[in-house]
Amino acid sequence: MAGAALGSWLALAGGWGLAYVSRRLSRTEAKFAALGVPGTVVGGMVVWLWGRFDGRWGEPIAQGRLGQKMADGLPGIVRVAAVASALFLVWRMRRVPR
Prior knowledge:
Layout: H1 2-6, H2 9-20, H3 27-54, H4 66-93
Helix pairs in contact: 2-3, 2-4, 3-4
């Protein structure tokens, strides 16, 4: 959450690294928190941009501007991915021990 609030790429990467090596989570949960949640968010961005490029929703992206749109949206998407990962971790950490 700190990386998302501060916008620090180093803090974001460190948070995902700590989630990946967590001993409180199962290996599957740790991998999903560090790789699956951010991958899902980025996949959502790709689908959104595809829809915009194809004119399915919103004003179509002009030819040759897709890369710029991706670069413009990247900081926000990374922050959303960090918050989503943090929420997943909080949810999994609050479970009743087995």
